[in-house]
Every structure is written in C-alpha cells, then in structure tokens.
Amino acid sequence: QVQLQESGPGLVKPSETLSLTCTVSGGSISSYYWSWIRQPPGKGLEWIGYVYYSGSANYIPSLKSRVTISVDTSKNQFSLKLSSVTAADTAVYYCARHGGHGYYFAYWGQGTLVTVSS
Amino acid sequence: EIVLTQSPGTLSLSPGERATLSCRASQSVTNDYLAWYQQKPGQAPRLLISGASSRATGIPDRFSGSGSGTDFTLTISRLEPEDFAVYYCQQYSTSPLFTFGPGTKVDV
Predict the structure, then answer these.
(1) Is the pLDDT of residue A101 over 80?
(2) Chain B hits for A105, Cβ within 8 Å
C-alpha cells in the first residue's frame, strides 16, 4: 500500500519561501503523476500542481509564477517550493498520487499545516 | 476553467437515510472525468469514485456515482454513522488544470 508523508517547516515568514517534501513509501515514485493540493483552514481544496517522475511539471496559473515542484527519484521524494508567501498561503498542504487511469487523486498524505506569520 | 458547483451546501439527515449530493459543471466534463472524495475532520480526503461511477478499492457499495456531461450525483444509499463528513467533487478533464467543487457537508 502506497503511503505518502509530508515534511517541512510549520511556520514561514511573509515574503519567504515555503518548502515541503513528500516521501513516498510502499511503492516507486516512477511511472506516476504526483501533486500538491492545499486547503486553507475551514475552506475547500485547491490543486497547486503536479510533477511526473520524469521531472516535467504543470501548475495552476494563479500560482505559476511562485511555484516549483520537483522530483528526486533516488530518494522516492517530490518537493514543493512556493516563494513570496503571504498570509493567504496559510493552509494544510497535502501531497497526493494520481490514479493509474486519470488525474484523480488516489492516495493522499496526512497533510501538514503551514502558517505564514511573522 | 471548469467551475464546479455542489448542492446542497449542507445536508441534514439521519443514519439509515438516503443521501443525494449534486455536482454541476460550468461546461461539459469530457470522458466523465469526475471524482468524488470524502473528508472527515482532521483527515485527508479519501477517494470514493473516479470516472463518475467507478468505486475506488475498498469503498462500500452503498456509495454510488452517476451522471455525465455537466450533471453528476453521488448517492449514499443508507447512511452509516461514519458517513457524516464533507464530500467534494473534482474534475480532471481539463489537464493540466484540475478543479474541486466547494463541498457538501452531510451532518446529523
């Protein structure tokens, strides 16, 4: 059974860069798409972007100028960097694996709360 | 961008009752690329349905999905106590832009 675990700082200062890593266990990171999704407290879900194991990535247009998602197949990990953060970026950040037959999200990490505050 | 609207916002029901949740898209969802998720407080979402009607592994058969084009429905035939949660629909027909609906809360 595939398991995903997010890790990274829970507090980031405004204007700095948010950095999170998702470690995949129970399966290889190869041959699938991997996404980051966030959920502000008390609100709905927002897809941020995905990366393929080859390294190609795509992002939601509204965040494209600030986001980078990368993959490290040797460590079975993929990562999120979000620059110039503001309080509006405070959210629970989830990593997820896409399904084998489409871009739905078949497996999710437990999520990690990132607060942007000075 | 496909905008998803879910109704009702909150559905107040009792265990044993039938729940019918609606998800409407602002334009046609190609190939019925629509998924449903369940989220309980403090937990990550869990995939219930993909392709509009295919149950994910381990999902009880009281959960069923239907619909096509712009109108989709998630039905829970008989609510169990553990089914009280928030349900989200998500379209994945417009790669690489995937969108979620705002959610429907099913409570007692």
Answers:
(1) no
(2) 35, 37, 45, 47, 90
